[in-house]
Amino acid sequence: MTRVACGLSGLWVLAWCAAACGEPIDLQPYQIDWSQAEQSAVDMSQYLDAPAGKAGPIRIEGPRLVKPDGTRFRIWGVNLTGPECFPPKELAPRIADDLARFGVNCVRFHHMDGTWSPLFDKTRQDTSQFDPAAMDRLDFFIAELKARGIYTNLNLNVSRQHKPGDGVRDAALLGYGKSATYFHPRLIELQRDFARKLLTHSNPYTKQQYRHEPAVCTVELVNENSVLEGWVNNRLVGSDDPAGQSTWRPIPVSYANELTDQYNAWLEQNLAPAELKQLRGEAGSDRVERLAPREFGKASKLRFFTEARFYMDVERSFFTGMKRLLADELGVTAPLVGTADHADAYCAYSHIRSNMVLDFIDGHGYWQHPRTGQDFWIANTPMVNDPLDSTVTQFARTPVVGLPFTISETNHPYPAEYACEGIPILTAYALLHDWDGIYWFTYGKGRMQEPDKGWRSSFDFSNDPVKMTHLAACAAMFHRQDVSAARQTIVRVYSDDQITEGLRMDRKGRPFFDPSFPRSAALRHATRWTTDGQASPYPDPAPLGRIESDTGELGWYDADRQQGVVAVDTPQTQALIGHVRDGRKATANLAAQVDNPFCCIYLTALDGEPIARSGRLLLTTTARATLSGFAWNPDRKTVQDWGRAPTVIEPVTGAVTLVGLQDAGRIKVTPLAAEGRPLEPPVQAEQTARGWRIPIGTPVTTWYILEPQR
Length: 710
Prior knowledge:
The protein has 3 domains: about 55-255 and about 300-485, Alpha-Beta Barrel (TIM Barrel), CATH 3.20.20; about 490-495 and about 505-545, no CATH class; about 545-710. The chain is about 20% helix and about 20% strand. The chain is globular.
């Protein structure tokens, strides 16, 4: 349990946390002041090419997203959700400025169609018309983003819930309608109508319809939605229980019956008479009932594979139909993506294959996604101690040979105590795998957030000074591709039978569902999969205590001792992440002796030079961020008190030593406020026999500008 004593002056907060090491942790106020953000000494907008789309739309060239001239386009993005997509017009330019300073070059507009979002006209008894005022704010915001070099990802169907006037059967039981949106004619009709209205809408501030807007770099059809995943997770059985939650509830009984009708009509058209007779014999009826997951194990190959093939066909037919509408009829210029591979606990290759009819592949994944709601629970353990189940290995199962791959949702959700590891590790390994983009979930309200309420969800991070520090710092690494792409790509080849049979494999096979593929390979090499061609020989498993990339730039150490450390060692970016206190790991130019049992020390050049010759460096030192008064229950997995503002951090204390700086006569060290504003006085660096020693922890900060003087 965490106790927080807060002085009336608000100048100090001391929290005694029953951490794994049993040591007290000193938490100090450190809150982002967005009104001072323009004074930030950190500005990553140099990596943006404004205005977005100035030479034409983003396109696909082979396995890459590229600009019109063929140069690589990588997405360093954030999600905005619901009302956050429609900021007040007086704030929109400031939010766009903020995002540009943090290096963000794309915003995913997510949950615009939710009931809590202002998009639909609330005076109507249907969801067929957009609210003009909301659209005006959206248009203005997108124009402001475009002017700063920030692209837009438009989501079509995410969380739309229908009203009586929509003519949707059993709408009150449908929730978000996951799975049903693929096969029910009225739901498909409404999605097509939504797409036409949104994409043919003309933005008065850019003078472009969204279908032709070059600053729209992606149109995403549905969110975390799969018929196959619904089948495997028992949501196609049909339930009219009104108590179910809206996101993952089973389809209503009438929809389940409709799907069975469609299945039997499909059987008549796609099975040979002998096969149909055999299938009906096994089912014991001329009307073949669909399988529930509890029946998978006993079903014959014919019955299981036939039903799986039907669901694959439903998904492909939906995606193909939407592609015809968007690309052929409407002439949408942006690349199209279907939906994310969003659940690594089932074998999703069949679903990924359905998405391959579109332009690229996408994934969602979180480190220890919490169980939310009244029974909130989070595992709250460090990822550095579990490399084989890390977000890196989760995402590595999805990319396909010959197609770009992006991650449109990921996070280390709050209140995880080890979240400082999340952004730096995944960014580094995304570059090793040569992926095309990451959108962090979710930016949150930022300037719109009431400062006295802190942040309100496990996913909002725009008022989390640790995550915002890394959003900016890692932007430089990502945009420059400081981590080299892997020298070797391991290609996994799976037959149709393998990917179909995988749907009923035990979940212990996650995430690859390939017993012969060592999960450590995804931390050493890139990997892709395909259904044809020549598979690569699989490497032997790496020892858990030492997993190094084939480039020599990334290493994952000591997880076997539950003292995991990830080291990043490139000419322009270096980092030590995890249990770094004892100083047993160092990089070419970075060593640390810190007091904290868990932290991230990250160093990157800001002037394009290697660290050894750079005249301007960004040093980040991060540990835990939380809210004043936050209190765990004794299990440290459930919450007693969610806390309130001000935000507090665990300062990283001790010293960082910079080694091998060429011809540095002295180093100016400027600590920064949470929003990046310089603080006084400067920190005094000391030259030692080993290098330049920089004391850290006073003043309280997560980042410093270092300026070697030559």
